[in-house]
Amino acid sequence: MVAASEIAIVALAAGGVFFAFVAAVGLLRLPDLYTRAHAASKSDTLGAVLSLAAVALVFGTGTTTVKTVFLLAFMFVTNPTAAHAIARAAHDQGIEPWTLADRETEVGPTGGAEEADRAASEPATDGGSPDAASEWTNTTSAVGPETTGESEPGEDSKPADGRIGGTKE
Amino acid sequence: MTAADPVVSPLIAEVLLAAAGAFVLFGIVVFYRVYHGPTVQDRVIGVNVVGSNTVVVIALLAAAFGQPALLDVALVYALLNFLMSIALSKFTVERGEVF
User: Which of A35, A82, A128, B6 has its CA 20 to 30 A from that of A137?
Assistant: First the structure.
């Protein structure tokens, strides 16, 4: 019969493969270095940790399991640290994060996204320490036009003008 | 390396080998980012992901084949992978780009 530990091993290995797949897709498809660092550090580390947990369950109790748990803890700590060091090196070199204005030049201006990306790009061009802030405003404003555009079709321009107070370009 | 797996049943060994094959496939796919990344840091992140996937593949092989000695190899490679990412990012800041 199938033991409970065998079910757990298969489930953990499947979860590890899934999160590694998400990390690979994210590395290929995301538009910017900083967003790719999110995929590579978080999802890839979780996939590796789940797979190493499956390996630890395989070996049962003993010194081999202690070695596997040590390897798991090491990867859990160092993989995000390496991604953070890479992202900080990129920021020191002056690489700017991707904003919705870049998507506008790539895709073409859309109705609801123009006001939102002006609102998102303006805090990003301040300089100083806007990298984390611009990423967060990018994610929220990427969700914004899709949710508010359908509910308020005629009022997209009015609150945007009041918020910005002038054109960006 | 013999195929004797005294620790798991053959079915679990097949599952672990399939997972290792999937990780190898993801590592190969990420090479597109290493080739195509517009900045050096993109390439460094790609190589870091390839290294982490390799560590997981070695550990899964250690479990599938029942040979705990492979775990030492995985540990050493995890250390080297981390060190290389840190060293490359420091190098690109101090000395400019490395192609």
Answer: A82
Asked whether the beta carbons of residue B52 and residue A79 sit closer than 8 angstroms, the reply is yes
Q: How far apart are CA B57 and CA B21, in angstroms?
A: 8
Could you tell me the pLDDT band of residue A95, with boundaries at 50, 70 and 90?
Answer: confident
Average pLDDT over residues B6-29: 90
Contacts of B49 (CB under 8 A, 6+ apart): A23, A24, A27, A40, A44, B27, B30
- What is the rounded distance in angstroms from the CA atom of residue A48 to the CA atom of residue B95? 32
Residue with the larger pLDDT of the pair B50 and A150: B50
Taking residues B10-19, what's their average pLDDT? 92
B32 Cβ under 8 Å from any chain A Cβ? yes
Q: What is the mean pLDDT of residues B46-56?
A: 95
- Give me the mean pLDDT over the A30-37 stretch: 91
Query: 């990306």: which residue's tokens?
Result: A117
CB-nearest to B42 from A36, A60, A81 is A36
Q: Is B34 on the interface with A (CB under 8 A)?
A: no
* Chain A residues closer than 8 Å to B26 by CB: 20-21, 23-24
DSSP label of A125:
T
Rg from Cα positions in chain A = 22
Question: Which of B33, B36, B43, B56 to probe the A interface (max A CBs under 10 A)?
Answer: B56
By CB atoms closer than 10 A (0-12, 13-18, 19+), residue A18 is: middle
The CA distance from A54 to A12, in Å, is 5
Question: Which residues of A are less than 8 Å from B81 in CB distance?
Answer: 82
